[in-house]
Amino acid sequence: MRNRWASFLFGIVAAAPLSFGQIAVAVSPTQERADSRPQGSRLEQSAGSPSSFGPLVRGESVASVEGAAGQEPVRRHVVVVVWDGMRPDFVSEQNTPTLWKLAQSGVTFRNHHSVYPSATIVNGTAINTGVYPNRSGILANHDYQPEINPKSSIDVENARVIRKGDELSGGKYIGVSTIAELIHNGAGKTAIATAKTVGLLFDRHAEPQNGQTIFAGDSTQPDAVTEIVKTLGAFPAATQPGERDAWTTKALVDFLWRNEIPAFSLLWLSEPDDTEHKTAPGAPAAIAAIKSSDDNLARVLGALDRSGGGRTRSTTDIFVVSDHGFSTIARSIDVPKILRNAGFDAVTELTGEPKSGQIMIVGNGGTVLFYVIGHDAAVTRRLVEFLQQTDFAGVIFTREPMEGTFTFDKARIDNQHAPDVEMSFRWTGDKNQFGAAGMMDGDWQRAAGKGTHATLSKFDMHNILIAAGPDFRRGQTDELPSGNVDLAPTVLAILGIKPATAMDGRVLSEMMNAPPLKSETQTIEATRKFSGGTWRQHLTISRVGTTEYFDEGNGTLQRQD
Ligand SMILES: [Zn+2]
User: Fold this and answer.
1) 114 CA to middle of ligand 1, Å?
2) Is the torsion defined by CA of 550, 556, 560, 561 positive or negative?
3) 516 with 527: CB under 8 angstroms?
4) Is 313:305 a contact under the CB 8 Å cutoff?
5) Kind of pairing, strands 77-83 and 465-468?
6) For residue 560, with 0-12 CB atoms within 10 Å meaning exposed, 13-18 middle and 19 or more buried, which class applies?
7) Gap from CA of 308 to ligand 1 centroid (Å)
8) DSSP state of 527
């Protein structure tokens, strides 16, 4: 039987023509070898020699961590820790001593990307599935799906919404299998603990035999939480994000890991996102919130060090990732009011029957979704022309091709649930009141001076990824583009699980045991002339093989004097 990891990599390379970039992974079917290694440890190397090319290239038998054939097989463990909203420029020896030290023993991916829109649930789903929003169907944190709620927008991770969505789609509310589902299909177990509601999307079926999932102090297996509450007390109030993170970390380490550390574990911390929304990037409280996530990471690493008589850490790959970056709001823009003043029938909630040409507006912080009822072409055209002449529009995407816009497929957000028009707000590299760069206009739901995200700003679209463990090189930095869509394919490759359908992301093999890869970057532009000036928007896209990463996008009306 072929080495599954090699064939998996080859499958990704062969799955689509590499018309754009360079060949991604130097692995070919001729590198097959007898598959005599134990299930669940596809990349066996002696712990501490992550740069070995052994398993993929030489084809010799490879010792397990115990070092001798015939001993108990060594399984790989993967632990993913998400620091919500963590920006790369705040990782330092002083701010994040534990993460800093972990990075010295592993790889820092210095050009890591969110998917667009750079919002939590969208990126949680990208991490969870390895595909872009167009294939997962999770296009925004809040969108409008009239078959689920005809009157107003929905929170896409709400339990009732998910249940309804799965009913309506025959179980395809998320359009592809999640990482947890793929691991369960391979008889592996998972432990998922998230301080925010995003956890339910990782394993919305939550069969007890597959492990436990806890999200925002809740679980689809209520008994699990009852027992935790007896020891840790009730899940803390929403006003105490740091306490919620500590509670969730203890739930994972002391309860979900009590009997065994499963193949895959996820811990999602709400900080620094929560505090950066209430303050701003660089605020003293936000720096303290970053330290609290570092303390929780230390608890996780300590538990791994103690587990299995000290052996578990050497068989565990740890990923620390953020879902998105962060910006500071320069101006809060009341888009519904501005559109109504311009004569549009624009609403955020329907009181009566929807009328053709009405616009349902759904704010997502740095991005706004516009649903034109009945897909009225004249209203859509007038709306786009209006937005292109404002001083707050950054990049405008449309369902149908239009002058001076990009179609949804350019950002991988083309899906049946997509709106008619989607706009990322305009942004700059200016500094905020605490000296942190990255200012943006934002929607009407938060005030100027506070933090938010979800635009195509480079400050929102770049986030952190640090990976350390037996399968990764040590003390390296990777300048090659990587992104949240790469997490699932990389984790599954480590665990030796092949997804049923190809993922959009790639295995981060260049920092494991494969040769370097190449990338290329391209900027696309769209323009439209008006009597008062020219609208000009751009989107910068990097590619490694067929995987695309959105670096940034912005736009402006250049006035003619
Ligand atoms: Zn987030």
Assistant:
1) 10
2) negative
3) no
4) yes
5) unpaired
6) exposed
7) 33
8) E
**Residue 302 contacts by C-beta under 8 Å, 6 or more apart in sequence?**
none
Whole-number Å distance between alpha carbons of 515 and 506: 14
**CA triple 312-316-319, angle to 5 deg:** 145
Show Cβ contacts of residue 325 under 8 Å, excluding neighbours closer than 6 positions.
Answer: 85, 87, 88, 114, 118, 438, 453, 457, 459, 460, 461, 462, 463
What's the 274 CA to ligand 1 centre distance in angstroms?
A: 8
Low-confidence ranges of the chain (pLDDT < 70): 1-74, 561
Please give, one letter per residue, the 3-state secondary structure of 193-223.
Answer: EECCCCHHHHCCCCCHHHEEEEECCECCCHH
pLDDT tens digits, residue range 270-315? 999 999 999 999 999 999 999 999 999 999 999 999 998 889 999 9
CA distances from 242 to 23, 279, 282, 290, 326 (A): 44, 15, 17, 10, 18
Q: Which long-range contacts (CB under 8 A, 24 or more apart) does 52-61 make?
A: 52/513, 53/513, 53/514, 54/513, 55/3, 55/5, 55/513, 56/3, 56/5, 56/6, 56/27, 56/31, 56/513, 56/514, 57/31, 59/3, 59/31, 59/32, 59/33, 61/36, 61/37
For position 206, what pLDDT does the model report?
80
In what helix (H) or strand (E) does residue 166 lie, and over which residues does it extend?
A: helix 159-169
Q: Which of 397, 392, 293, 409 is nearest to 335 (CA)?
A: 392
| d(CA 211, ligand 1 centre) in Å | 25
The pLDDT, as a whole number, for residue 157 is: 95
Contact 115, 412 (CB under 8 A): yes
Tell me the residues surrounding ligand 1 (ion) with CB < 5 Å.
Answer: 84-85, 120, 273, 323
What separation in Å is there between the alpha carbon of 60 and the centre of ligand 1? 44
Q: Radius of gyration (Cα) for the chain, nearest Å?
A: 23
As a whole number of angstroms, the distance between CA 217 and CA 194 comes to 8
Closest CA to 252 of 297, 319, 197, 185: 297
Q: How far is the CA of 180 from the centre of ligand 1 (A)?
A: 20
DSSP conformation letters of 105-128: TSEEETTEEPPSS--HHHHHHHHH
How many A from CA of 278 to the centre of ligand 1?
13
CA 503 to centroid of ligand 1, rounded, Å: 22
- What is the pLDDT, as a whole number, of residue 310? 85
Number of residues assigned to the chain: 561
Q: What is the pLDDT of residue 74?
A: 56
Task: Give Cα 270 distance to the centre of its chain.
Answer: 14
Cα 298 to averaged position of ligand 1 atoms, centre (Å): 21
- CA of residue 96 to ligand 1 center, whole Å: 19
Question: From the CA of 323, how far away is ligand 1's center (Å)?
Answer: 5
Distance 33 CA to ligand 1 centre (A): 42
- Token reading at 98: 């534990």
pLDDT for the residue 220: 87
